[in-house]
Amino acid sequence: MSHPDRFLLAGVMGWPVMHSRSPMLHNYWFRAHDLAGTYVPLAIRPEGLETALRALPALGFSGCNLTIPHKETAFRFVDGVDDTARKIGAISCVVVRPDGSLFGSNNDSFGFAEGLLEACPDWRADAGPAVVIGAGGAARAVIHALTTRGARDIRLVNRTRARAETLGRDMGGPVTVLGWEDRDAALAGATLLVNTTSQGMVGFPPLDLRLDALPANAIVADAIYIPGETPLLAAARKRGHRTVNGLGMLLHQARPAWRDWFGVDPKVTPELRAMIEATI
């Protein structure tokens, strides 16, 4: 699809933001589709978010992605949101509509499911119990993905049980909250384990979880993609589990944004994945 009349613009707003791989990802697609445009990192302090968002139409932006700490507060500054963003309680993508109004959506749920299916094409959400560790924004996106695809048993575990119980009430569906002391036993019979916490990320301690009770056919996923293999994934791989890191979630959540911004359905290619992995 050509856009001969203007230079296309999009970006990612966060604080901090310069660590983001999103510019590399999106600018790859500009080149792949031979489009004149660019995607830029926008370091926006929390107190400047409203001004920055409201400036997008005048600056010619088609939209932007949002990352920490803006995903929740952006609700106050957009003119409409989709049902997924409202359910998850976070906005990951803003689209500038033709009339200059701002529309918020959340593509993280889509990104998680598509990334998991790319790595494990036979995965089914209704195949058996899923265990989700953590109760933040990533957990909300994962649980939304699981429930909308037919999961019947989601076991949610978090260090702070009250936060997990709040998430369970907000999301509804087949979510059972378990105490942190029950995290190891929660793995019994599970077909999917997903870590959505920061444990295992560069600079953080590994997730304190024993995998002994996890069935051999279970998939182990981590929302983290730096490092490419967390201690959890390394331990799971040694036990013979199929493992999936968070890079697929990052790559695939960007596809709906491009459809909304530019009318293009981009592909996650091996070349794109290898280019991003080379920087991790």
Structural commentary:
The chain is of the alpha/beta class. It folds into 2 domains: 8-106 and 253-277, Rossmann fold (3-Layer(aba) Sandwich); 109-245, NAD(P)-binding Rossmann-like Domain (Rossmann fold, 3-Layer(aba) Sandwich), CATH 3.40.50. Helices cover 34% and strands 18% of the residues. The chain has 9 helices and 12 strands. The chain has helices at residues 22-32, 49-59, 83-88, 108-119, 137-148, 161-171, 231-238, 247-262, 270-277; strands spanning 8-14, 37-43, 63-66, 80-81, 93-96, 102-105, 130-133, 154-157, 175-178, 192-195, 219-222, 242-244. The protein has a 6-stranded mixed beta sheet with strand order 2-1-3-5-6-4, sandwiched between helices. A 6-stranded parallel beta sheet has the order 9-8-7-10-11-12, sandwiched between helices. Strand 1 (8-14), helix 1 and strand 2 (37-43) form a beta-alpha-beta unit. Helix 4 packs across helix 5 (137-148) and helix 4 (108-119) packs across helix 8 (247-262). The model has no long low-confidence stretch (mean pLDDT 96).
